[in-house]
Amino acid sequence: MKAKCLSLAAATALAALLAAGCSSSDSGTTDAGSTDSASRGSSGTQSASGGLSGTVTVFAAASLQESFTTFEEQFEQANPEVDVILNLGASSALATGITQGQPADVFASASQSTMDTVIAAGAAESATAFAKNTMQIAVPPANPAGITALSDLTRSGVKVALCQTQVPCGKAAATVFDNASLTVVPVSEESDVKAVLTKVRLGEVDAGIVYVTDVRAAGGEVTDIDIPADVNASTTYPITTLTESEHPAAARAFVEHVLSDEGAEVLASAGFSTP
Asked: Is 185 exposed, middle or buried (0-12, 13-18, 19+ CB in 10 A)?
């Protein structure tokens, strides 16, 4: 009888050990799942708390600088685990970088034709127009050349800065001159519209053709001269997420913010119109 009691006690102890082992195994599986979820969050898709995280690199036309800086601040405030990095420049140069494999998540172009090159290369599937901009003459505040009309840009001795012809602002300026049947020979062709504006601000040229939004952003540093509506040109801005985005969820959310009512208010305050 004594031996039987010992055998039962041993069996009971063994059962307890097996139960404890199973419990430990189950607990380990749960922890591993939690770690894996957090790891996915740190990659930029979704954080362990369920929110967006990671880095979103946005390639955007130089003329979007002020608006997209505001978008960056708004989006990061709403999504504390997301870091938005802006790469601003000429749309044509940004498009070339994207098609050559530079890592980016979002592209906002100053023209549909530039966006089309990115789509044709397979770097994006489609794009949505979100803003429209028109051209304006910018001159230094003192207006030393006495520019009052578009035709004054053809006068001998008047120094004009334009965007390079492959850049959207350069194409738009060329359209303006064609519409007005004018020939303007620039003393400087710049890589993007902000560079043209800088030439004007510093007084290195007498005038430049830029966007309405750039003149507004410059405040009193330049004076604006309107281009007649019947010869003026405009450009439409499309935006898209890129197919090679490492953080597609955060990229889509950023684009949705730009396209939201709040985004439209930011763009309107900068001088953009609806497309």
From this structure: exposed
Beta-carbon contacts of 231 under 8 Å, excluding residues fewer than 6 positions away, are 150, 176, 179, 180
- 96 belongs to a structural domain: yes
* C-alpha–C-alpha distance, residues 266 and 68, integer Å: 9
Same domain, 152 and 68: no
Same domain, 222 and 259: no
pLDDT tens digits for 37-70? 333 333 445 554 458 999 999 999 999 999 999 9
The rounded distance, in Å, linking the Cα atoms of 153 and 137 is 10
Residue pair 224/140 in contact by the 8 Å Cβ criterion: no
- For residue 208, tell me if it sits in a domain: yes
Residue-wise pLDDT for 100-115, tens only, equals 999 999 999 999 999 9
Tell me the residue range of the domain where 183 lies. Answer: 133-234
Statement to judge: residues 169 and 81 lie in one domain: no
Q: What is the mean pLDDT of residues 8-23?
A: 38
